[in-house]
Amino acid sequence: MTKIVKTPKRLALHAGWRSDPTTNSVAVPIHQTTSYQFDSTEHAANLLHYQN
Predict the structure, then answer these.
(1) Of 40, 38, 18, which Cα lies nearest the Cα of 28?
(2) What is the pTM of this model?
């Protein structure tokens, strides 16, 4: 098995995430987001309150 060299770049990338002790894998969560455009603040409020 190849030994992984922990360079500063690699340490920064994985900072704060703990690896699995058995497999050494690190599963960083994926956050899927989007943004919306509204015609007005009233339009946004109506949609957020499920109104027409």
Answers:
(1) 18
(2) 0.33
